[in-house]
Design goal:
The chain is mostly helical. Helices cover about 80% and strands about 0% of the residues.
Length: about 300
């Protein structure tokens, strides 16, 4: 019986890891599609609108299976839920602008500074203690970010600052998600993410709307919403089979996927500065993750004594 239980646990962990890898493969396709459509001349606000409009329709369709009722969308934290949705919309818009002009490998590297920013902000915003080890990792991570973006290089593109804004918004989004976790259901947050994104972006989308010239552009416009929704669904399901502490390292597969799509579709390869910077940022993020896991285990041991 013990052997069977152990085997079942291993199978669940394996499934969770596979789903996590699939989620980040899907997220990479969202960014790649946004870059492709942006270079085809479609506005970032139009692309972002379609991403959330399709997301909203799919979410409502799933919720409607159990009968539509406004009570299902009620929450005592509605203000924070809407703020979380606005932060998510902000990350999409800024990211879709940035990927149009920057290599996917660079925007992915900058995006992975978000966990480092989360750690830095967890003390002033959540009151969580950050010790010298993690502060050291934060500083090293930001040094890696500077290596990747080369702020004093004459060729620095203005879209780098937009991408940095994406990372900052992602960090705030992650902190707020952590705050709401366990208090608001994932389906409710999915619904408000799609609703707020659709309502906020609709006026801008129609103002800047450009009619796609080819059927493929229509397919990708709808596909980006489907991919965005699917990525979040798979991401949530992965966490049902394994703890975040087990899954987090596999999120860095996103960098591999972005490098693959960048080379295959846009003939863009990461230069030495991006590779070194990405390595430093990833190492710092993984160290922060490992340190937090160790601290959680230490607290559990102390609690059980």
């Amino acid at each position: 019986m013990v052997g069977l239980a152990s085997k079942a646990r291993e199978d669940r962990l394996t499934l969770g890891i596979v789903l996590m890898l699939l989620a980040y493969a899907t997220f990479s396709m969202v960014d790649t599609s946004a870059k492709w459509m942006g270079q085809a001349g479609l506005a970032a606000l139009q692309i972002a609108f379609m991403r959330y409009a399709v997301h909203l329709v799919l979410t409502i369709g799933l919720i409607a299976r159990g009968g539509l009722s406004f009570d299902r969308f009620a929450s005592e934290k509605i203000g924070l839920v809407v703020l979380r949705a606005l932060l998510l919309v902000g990350t999409s818009v800024t990211n879709f602008i940035a990927v149009r002009y920057l290599p996917l490998t660079l925007t992915a590297t900058i995006a992975f500074s978000a966990p480092i920013i989360v750690c830095a902000l967890s003390w002033p915003l959540l009151g969580e203690r950050v010790g010298p080890w993690r502060w050291s990792a934060i500083l090293i991570g930001f040094c890696g970010l500077l290596v990747a973006i080369r702020p004093f290089d004459a060729t620095l593109h203005w879209a780098v600052f937009i991408s940095l804004g994406t990372a900052f918004l992602m960090a705030l989004y992650a902190l707020l998600t952590r705050r709401l976790s366990g208090e608001v259901s994932p389906m409710t947050m999915q619904f408000y993410g799609g609703l707020v994104g659709t309502v906020v972006l609709a006026p801008f989308a129609f103002l800047f709307w450009q009619m796609p010239d080819r059927p493929m552009e229509w397919i990708m416009l709808f596909g980006i919403g489907l991919l965005g929704w699917a990525g979040h669904e798979v991401f949530v399901r992965a966490h049902r089979f394994a703890e975040a502490g087990v899954l987090t390292p596999f999120s860095y597969s996103f960098l591999i996927w972005m490098t693959f799509w960048s080379a295959l579709l846009f003939n863009e390869y990461p230069d030495s500065f991006t590779i070194i910077g990405a390595s430093i940022v990833s190492a710092a993020g993984l160290f922060i993750w490992a340190r937090e896991r160790w601290l959680q285990k230490a607290r559990r041991i102390d609690f059980n004594r």
